[in-house]
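re: that chain from earlier
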Amino acid sequence: MIRGNSFNAQVPTDPNNEYRRVLMYLASQADANGNLLNTQQLDLRGNGNGDIVGTIIAPSADVAMFGNSGTGTLDSQVSAYQVDSGGTADIHLVYDSGDN
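^ sequence. v structure.
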């Protein structure tokens, strides 16, 4: 769980870094037959302003984005088992292929 009044995170942009533009990676989990499991949780919570830039890859996770004030901007693509949002904050999800 990531919490705070203001959360800012930006991906590495070095062209020689094989993980550039990947902000978070949670390895997928599968059963013995190769079926994707929903076994992880990623919570992004805040009560202030924040900016996040980069791709979030979490194929076995429920991703929850919550806040109760301010504005959160995600210049991201989120690849997850399920994505939820809530609270009273404004959450803006923007995708710029040059950043992800």
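The chain has a mean pLDDT of 81.
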